[in-house]
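Notes from the 1:1 (GR / supervisor)

We went over the backlog. Supervisor wanted to see one worked example end to end before approving the batch request, so GR pasted a single chain during the call. The sequence is below; no edits were made to it. Supervisor asked that the structure be written out right there so they could see what the output format looks like.
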Amino acid sequence: MDPLEVAYAGVIGQRALLRAGALTAVELLDVCLDRIDRYDGRLGAFRTVFRDRARAEAEAADASGGDRPLLGIPIAVKDNVAVAGHAPSMGTGSPEPVAARDAELVRRLRAAGAVIVGTTRLPELALWPFTESATWGATRNPWSPDRTTGGSSGGSAAAVAAGMVPAATASDGGGSIRIPAACCGLVGLKPQRGRVPLGATSEDAAEHWHGLSVAGVLTRTVADTALLLDVLTAGELAVDVSHETGPLRVAWTVKGAVPTPVDPAVRVGLETVLDALRGLGHSVVESAPSYAGVQESFLTRYARGVRDDLVRLVDPSATEQRTRAVAAMGSKMPDALLTRARRLGDDAAQRLSRLPEGADVLVLPTIPHPPLAVGSMTGLRTLALAGRVTPFTAPWNVTGQPALSIPSGLSDDGLPVAVQLVGRPGEEEVLLQLAAQLEQRLDWTARRPALT
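Structure output shown during the call:
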């Protein structure tokens, strides 16, 4: 079989090949490891590759038989999640302890038969909408290595976009699933808050960044995302993406939480999606939501969350100055300010749960431009510059409702652009089924980066 076609077959496609006996789990792992060897030296997607351990897991998958949903499928894990026997870096140079056991989401992947290939890079403490750090260097975009992958799940995005793995875990506290998806031409769902466990066990009610953060995955197809979310939610989110939604009411806007110019290429991609929605029989109306209180709520919870993460490190000094600057900002925010931020967030969640014009779905840009150049955000100005990337994504972390980034085309210079579909609380199913219709119409899975 053509290794390139195997690499880009996706989770469901690779599963079909394995179940048909067209290749073994060990052979599939070898395809992935070969691509890591060929391309990761330039792209920097992986922090660690578990070669021997992954091979043992693939051999066990071949020997076990059965029909577990991810049996033999190679998956990468973002390096801020506990993998037994591995010390997650959190994107820093801090000598963190080796994890005694898998985080719950990793345990669920293994129980479903997945082969854990390695861990992927992120910026320090998952802070930024790019993936660069003093310790681990820059992760580069497979579509153009001088461009960012986005962040903070940029290593996961690069690994999937380059066909090194069909899927990777990700997390999102202000856009960190959706922004890398937008930069790398992928599907990235931020699930409803609390849908996927963040802690060590399914009973662990751990909250991150004071309710902003959620866990999810990055894939190339909507069906792959739906399958993985079924696994990660222990069947709670079992979506049949082949089921077509009835005619929906769709609102759209280019208004973000702060005034933000939108690049012409992103506007063209938005119009492409809106035209496709009309062609699918959905009604489309322009209308913007009210973002009152969202920015204050987000920035307070973000900064306090960064401070919380920094003090938990074994060596907080083994971080960049800009990381410590954000944490210092958070340390100066009293509990009363955090309480106010949570109240503003609750108010926004109640208000924005009703989408504009009574819409079923809101469509808006994921990020306001194609992927930026690597190294374009540096120093103590990073926080201000990063804020220009997140005005369309961060509001939905504040409200907690689901939001999904999908590819909407390419810019004139061949870089991915994307739109975001926002749903009402708990309505991931609507987003995924609508996105599946758009995927069939727009055929974004046919586009691949031309790696050299």
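Supervisor's comment: The chain has a mean pLDDT of 97.
Batch request approved.
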